[in-house]
Hints:
Blueprint: E1 13-15, E2 38-40, H1 54-61, E3 66-69, H2 76-79, E4 89-93, H3 96-107, H4 109-116, H5 122-133, H6 136-144, H7 151-163, H8 172-179, H9 216-231, E5 235-238, E6 256-260, H10 280-291, E7 297-304, E8 315-318, H11 330-337, E9 340-344
Parallel strand pairs: 3-4, 3-6, 4-5, 6-7
Antiparallel strand pairs: 1-2, 7-9, 8-9
Helix pairs in contact: 3-4, 3-6, 3-7, 3-9, 4-7, 4-9, 5-7
Bound molecules: S-adenosylmethionine.
The site of S-adenosylmethionine (SAM) has 24 residues, from α2 and β4.
Amino acid sequence: MNVKSIHANSSHWEANNENKALRPAAGRGGGVTSRSTRILKAPFPYFGGKSRAAELIWSRFGNVVNYVEPFFGSGAVLLGRPQPFSGPETVNDLNAYLANFWRAIQSDPEAVAYYASSPVNEVDLHARHLWLVKQAEFRERLSADPDCFDPKVAGWWVWGLCCWIGSGWCDADRYERNKNTRPNLGNAGQGVHRQLPHLGNAGQGVHRQLPHLGDAGQEIIEYFAELAQRLSRVRVCCGDWTRVLGPSVTIKHGLTAVFLDPPYSAPERAELYAHDSFSVAGEVKEWAVENGSNPLLRICVAGYEGEHEMPGDWECVKWRPRGGYDGQNRDKDNQNRERERLWFSPHCVKQELPLFAGGGI
Length: 361
Ligand SMILES: C[S@@+](CC[C@H](N)C(=O)[O-])C[C@H]1O[C@@H](n2cnc3c(N)ncnc32)[C@H](O)[C@@H]1O
């Protein structure tokens, strides 16, 4: 089967009742009309995903000819982009497993679906985790070669991400740090810190992200093919965020939107990402302020209230994410939901605040 030819169906789209704009599954390029008002989503849960902010962000970016997202994560903002549009899109993430997943989905969604379609099994989870974190050479190659991808790494990575509870999946540094300090308490060598898989969904693994499955295996193939179609012409880079912010990637193409969603600098937050940092947000803010007055740039920076002191001509908008990541840490999550802010540079589109944004500050 040619998976690229599978036509988008509606089963993996998020209902979007707040915006009646047309949002088809087709990839970029003008002239596409929609049968759907729903948004395609990543097939894995991700800390800090911005799907609920995407509509607000695009209302301020408007009709740009070029889009750059240096901290791509689950890609919620790109996937929430209103269609049709034309022009380049460049995304980037320092996490090689994540960048590999998006590249593999673009080029071989059927193979990724094959490796991702396993029931949850703790023995496999740990064996695959060990195999994945040992792929140091592959991680190097991925950031050096823009065409490099591996569907097996992608499928196992996304499968494990959906099974794993909390952070730490495929965090090679954390794995190395912890491997010798883990106590062996005799429970089959697992120790108390051994990560347990998510078994609360009857062992469904990646399928739990897919709410309305009939023939589960086929649905995953079709879902990944929809993602492939949307991403077919997106450039996926793997490296530090600064690598995709030079003029050749941004303003050389004309009016450019840049969405900056670095790991937040809040010192009390937990370590969340395989590539985490509490200092990168400050550097991002510096870059944003330095470039904010360029009329060819529309910049949005995400963060917590009070995290960034922006110049007076920047707009600050409060928004609220969906509660909780897998229902963990509920009290803290609820407090943090109230702290989410987006800062928009002076050349972004000025608008009355939409009701759902929760009001400006
Ligand atoms: C807050 S998340 C982005 C979430 C994303 N907006 C979404 O909707 O899913 C931050 C991302 O930045 C990545 N990251 C951390 N440090 C980075 C760096 N120096 N350069 C590029 N990406 C980095 C992490 O791997 C993580 O995926």
